[in-house]
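Ligand-bound model needed. phosphoenolpyruvate.
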Amino acid sequence: MSRKIIIAGNWKMHKTNSEALQLANQIKMKTTDVKHTGMIMCPPFTALAAVADVVKDSGISIGAQDMCIAKEGAYTGAISAGMIKSTGAIHVIIGHSERRQYFGETDDSVNQKIKTALEFGLKPIVCVGESLEQREGNITSEVVTKQIKGAFAGLKPEDISHIIAAYEPIWAIGTGKTATPEQAEAVHVTIREVVAEMFGQQAADGLVIQYGGSVKPENAQSLLSQPNIDGALVGGACLKADSFAEIIHIAEKLG
Ligand code: PEP
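Prediction:
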C-alpha cells in the first residue's frame, strides 16, 4: 500500500510571534512547488492562530504540540482541544517524550488525550520511543509495543485513519544521533504489526508512521526510503526554513 509521506516540524518552545510569522512565511514560499508530500508545522500555542493564517491557502497544515485531556474547566494555564481547533490547527502532537519526561505524561494520559482530540476533530501525532537504557537492554520492541497498546486502547479501527504515529527514540532526539534506517525500520514494522493485531491489517496498512530523532537533510533520504518509514517528525532542523524545506523536497522526490 502506498502511503503519503508526511513531514512535520515540532518547533518546541521556540519563536516569538514575529519570529514565527517570519519562519512560516519563509517555509511557505520555499514549498509552493510541493504536490505530493504532507506538510505540518507545530508552532507554540501562542503562534498557532497567526501561523495558521499565514498558511491558510497553502499545502501546509498546522498542529499544536500538546493539549489538555479535559474539554473545558478550571485548569489554569491549560489549552483545550476546542481552543486548538479554533485557531485553524488540525493536528496535535500527543505523548512527545519531553512531555513524558518533564510533565508527567503517561500512556494513560496519552490515551485520554487522543480520545478527546478525535472527539474535537483534531488529528493526533502520537509519539512513542525507547530510552538509551531500554535500547541497550534489548527491550525496545516491548517498550514501544506497550506504549502503542496503551495509547490506542479503546479506539476503533476507523480512528486510526485520523492518527499519525511517530517513532522517536529518546536517545536520538536533539542529540545529533540518529537511528540507522534499519533500526528505525525494524521498530516501524513492530508498530504496524501491533496496530494490525489491534485494529486489522487494513487500518495498519493505512497508518502513517513518522520517524523522529535528529532528522536533517543529510539523513532524510536514507530514512524515508525505508518501506515502513512514511515521514518525519523534525525538531531542530525545522527551525530553519532552508533545512525544513530541503527535507520536504527530499520527501517529494520519493513520493
Ligand atoms: C522532536 O523533538 O520531535 C525531534 C525529533 O527533535 P530533533 O529533530 O531535534 O531530534
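Residues 6-254 form a domain with the TIM Barrel fold (CATH 3.20.20.70).
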